[in-house]
Design goal:
The structure holds 2 protein chains of 2 kinds. By secondary structure, chain A is mainly α. Chain A contains 12 helices and 4 strands, in the order H-H-H-H-H-H-E-E-E-H-H-H-E-H-H-H. In chain A, the strands form 2 sheets. In chain A, strands 1-4 form a two-stranded antiparallel sheet. In chain A, strands 2-3 form a two-stranded antiparallel ribbon. The radius of gyration of chain A is 21 Å and the shape is globular. In chain B, strands 6-7-8-3-9-10 form a 6-stranded mixed beta sheet, sandwiched between helices. A 4-stranded antiparallel beta sheet of chain B has the order 2-1-4-5, with helices on one face. Classes of the chains: A mainly alpha, B alpha/beta.
Chain lengths: 336, 240
Amino acid sequence: MTDLAATDPLPKPKRDIAPILLPIALALLMIPLIGSTSSWLTLTAASLAMGMMIFIMASGLTLVFGLMDVLNFGHGAFIAVGAYVATLVLAPFAASIQADSLWMNLAVLAPAALLSMAVSGALGLVVERVLILPVYGQHLKQILMTTGGLIVAEQTLYALWGPQIIPMPLPASLRGSFILGEVAIAKYRVLAMLIGLAIFIAIQLVLNRSKLGLLIRAGVENREMVEALGYRIRRLFLGVFMTGSALAGLGGVMWALYREQVHASMSDELTVLIFVVVIIGGLGSIGGCFIGAILVAMVANYGGFLVPKLALVSNILLMVAILMWRPRGLYAVTSR
Amino acid sequence: MTDLLTLSGVHTHIGRYHILQGIDLAVPQGQVTMLLGRNGAGKTTTLRTIMGLWQASSGEISLAGQRIESRATPDIARLGVGYVPESMAVFSDLTVKENLILAARDAALDDKQLEWIFGFFPALRRFWLSRAGSLSGGQKQMLSIARAIIEPRKLLLIDEPTKGLAPAIVMALIECLREIKRKGATILLVEQNFFAARELGDNVLVMDNGTIVHRGEMAALAADVPLQERLLGLSLEAHQ
């Protein structure tokens, strides 16, 4: 116990940089294993782009987990709905998408993405009020309700759009690659990296430089005390849930463009990845989620290149390794 | 002396456990009312029920004439109730400054009030920009109390503030609470440290098995050793 009159200053808060070094170390370790520098650079760029897209989809979920203690197994529905809404906007403007003008492409793509976010966010409002609100604090019921919600959402998409895969071609100006010597980096991957980075910085600014962010961070740690200070945390929950849903919608659009196709169960392949990212990052930690997403993408890309048979289990192995190192994730925020 | 807070026939259930079994109590305005009792008597549950953190299953709770038993915790806090939980519950990821910014709610931090708080708890000035999680237990308790008094509150609910603290810090806390009392604050204070209870308390309520089994003046209880032993199972002197 430190005495009141003690003059020794507290140790400065240690910056925990080990998790940050992890993806860097992994990338460097892969150089000799992959052998070719150009292949390594291409795989690394692909990992970063994929990681950013997963981060966008997972960031909302980690805050929902951390702040609200809600197990939302239906998060994937927002991803799929976001992608489908984008197809509605893009279909009538196919000519603008295929025009060889970046501005014309963006003039259609940006409103499509924004509308997808708005619809996914609004769906988040409905889901929180109808499915989540009655089962706050009841994990088993949350799993049942949100899994049921996901099934209903998927089947509704099948009913409305049919079972066929809907093509979603990349805009003409985002096709092709930037060539740097022998290295080709797809233009769309660069855009995905920039958007993911921008969203990460924006979330960090909100969390660290605003009172709203203070409330979210405090709520992640102890929501009861936030209420005892006079804040209606339920409204904050709703805002975070809607924002997380909207980000999932944006992630859905980006993933659909990445795959150049949309289908109702597209979130199935992503849901496991997203949950792995949220768990290894530490529930409620945006920084952990960011690093976790990059790690998951790296393991998928490097692993797929080096040992394709391991691809199916590589992320589970990653999660086991991380949790053995840090049982509450890379950056533990909550005590849960 | 008017009563700022009254509880009348309050019952609280937590799951299938019936914790508060018909609490009747009154906290007079401008006084420190001690809530004593053995572990498990229901003291913390009483504070949490007043704060709305656990819902009273029946009974009435009034604050300055307004019924609050069915209000949400944030509404009760905004009526001017400050709460210092036993666990301190500082936000460890936030700095000392950020903890106090949140506690001040809509208002900006008042420099005069801050200086007053720093007078009791100089460590908070020194560690103003440090993460609360890196503070010692005593410093966290100071921050927890500072958070409750950074803005004027009608009523302070404080749960075992001296628990586990070094004697020097206990003395600083007692001095702080005494000063808060001098400024006219109304406090309902749960305390196991009988020295602190005797120093601070005007009135005393003793709980056992979810009911109030004794009410009176703190000085009278402090002077009556047989009564202390009967109510609390030990004398105050034994715990000084």
